[in-house]
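Task: encode each sequence below as structure tokens.

Item 1
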Amino acid sequence: MAGRGTGPDFVEALARGLDVLACFDADHRRMSLTDVATAAGLARPTARRLLLTLEELGFVRSSAGVFELTPKVLTLGTAYVASLGLWDIARPHLEALVARTGESSSMAQLDGSDIVYVARVSVPKLISLRVDVGTRFPAVQTSQGKVLLAALSPADLAAALTEPSRAGLPPYIGRSPEQLRAELTEVRARGWAVADEELAPGVRSVAVPVRDGTGTVRAAMNVTVHAAETSRERLLQEHLPLLLRTAGDVSAEWALWQSRPHVQLAHPGTSATV
């Protein structure tokens, strides 16, 4: 993983530390030093120093030679979401939407060829996928991913589709590149996307865009249902209108939040930031 920096200011040690954190996921919650070194492509002494540094910082803990992440890692993701101001705005709207539909709702953003969940309000349902903030899925297999891919320029879309997924799922072969581009053209025109058991059996969802103050699609919001309980027709006729209204309200409030006057007062002896 490491060794790919090209700029003169690239810090290889930082990159390797982030690689070590990225080795842990739902299937690799606890790893030995050898496991981490192999997964990150590092020599054992280097992996050991990085793990001990991360442990001293509180991001990793160890017991009997086995390492695992600590909840402090969540601060890295929540800091990003908080910096956008999006979660504070979206949360009451998501909660109200879930109360009306009785179904889970999430918000995600695009990262390469994957989506990453940045907000979620869920209800207990027997769905074959575990989804938390930070969960990553291949964009082409999700309704939110289709919405986000459809908003890209042709050049950005081509770059995203050629980037390998980091979600850890088998490659998706459900459609050809031509079929995908045709579907994304339709998604772009109508303003919403459906994923019908493409990510996992029994999982059906519809998603719509969330826009910032410039009108740029910055996130996608969905409603997820169990396919055996909720038909595609009901999803589109009953839940989609509520979802569109909710995403519009979130986008409008986010635009107002981004346009707010903001002054940060500096401490004595330093310059102020506006």
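Item 2
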Amino acid sequence: MNIARLLWRAARLCPDRPALALGETVVADYAALGRTAAALAGGLARMGARPGDRVALVMRNGPAYVEALYACWHGGLVAVPVNAKLHPREFAYILENSGARIVLSTADLTGALAEAGARAVIVADAEWRRLCREEPLAPVARADDDVAWLFYTSGTTGRPKGAMLTHRNLYAMTQGYLTDVDDVPAGATILHAAPMSHGSGLYNFPFVLRGELQAIPESGGFQPDEMLRLFRRHRDVALFAAPTMVKRLVDHVTAAGAGLGNLRTIVYGGGPMYVADCKAALAALGNRLVQIYGQGETPMTITVLPRALHADTANPRYDARLASVGVAQSGIALRVTDGDDRDVAPGEVGEILVGGDTVMKGYWNDPAATEKALRGGWLHTGDMGTLDPDGFLTLKDRSKDLIISGGSNIYPREVEEVLLAQPGVAEAAVVGRPHPEWGEEVVAFVVPAPGAPVTPQQLDAACLASIARFKRPKAWRFVDALPKNNYGKVLKTELRRLAGEAAHE
């Protein structure tokens, strides 16, 4: 079943309801959104896109993002939302790897795309407007297991991998939201302040299913003053936010003494929320928090810590539960296993395995990685954690050494490969250390090559030339040698300890 049926249904049942808003202004009702998606699907077809082809969305947040997504699905195409913060070289890799036939872009990213060697249809220009006036395409039928969303998520190889999310996956995620995360009452709004290429965009589905409003800040992102203004303007507002965004909102509300208007729910995830920060958020924002844990390979859907458990202060394990990521969402099977995929006892640390209809079909054009990730019929997340006897999952460490800064994933090897390509670097290792605002920040340990002095400025410039700005190290430590075990493996646990100590020097 084509996920675009959510929009087809809403356009028929509630055509006059507001569907899209930019800031405080409604720009489309459901009838108009349905017409635009069908016409744009026709335009893409006349550009040569056929069912199953990939269309890359290299776009900042805006109402056109929703139009483009549903146009892709209406036409039986595969949407490839791309993180707008990436480097041109990273754009080029994803566009080539996905085999994107068409690229849709906002005007501010055309320079980066040109550097990546790609031509794009620019949102809101004459060509876009023409496409949106094409003869509407009839809805294209798709099977449940056809790919709908190609979600590029970094891997330990240093190259992004495309998680193939099917129409079935996206329907299951939508039902999980409505069952476990939050209701979508009549007149509700989702406010897209986080990137729509990731979690916030995935949360469009429950609101389209219910025929409710999706609003995008005029800034396209998260600005506390703007958020508070929009909380007052719209009704029953929900938003997805990284913990760093929650902390910024708490700090602003506390300092300004501002009210929260019609804010209903903040769904947070994408990084650790420390217990002290969670309690501060509850004190400042009230009982509005829901935590989720998910991955691109099982989108937004592994566990949930619902609103009621955030408020259950009488429970003797309250602090431990706030430190957890909650319990398995409905329809999700959850295991914690040892190196041989055998379940470990409650409280023991192991790798987190996930089963259910939200788990991806596999990685795009990467059968070896697919086999490794889905062996035995379970998604091997690479995350380490413990399950308590009541089913609460607590994350402990990441077997992939993932760094999460500001809600964005950073894999050390991506950065290390850039550093090791520099002539003045003999060895390099990258770790994360806690940061009060961003959750974690990147720290690089560098062993200089003999007779080839290198400076932080040189290495910073090399990173800026090769990877996204948010991935570059924020601190540099030049050392004589990296700590290693008897097998020569770098001891990143020791490096994280040293990075933490350096932060307090």
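Check on item 2: DSSP finds 18 helices and 25 strands in the chain. The chain has two domains: 5-386, 403-503.
End of task.
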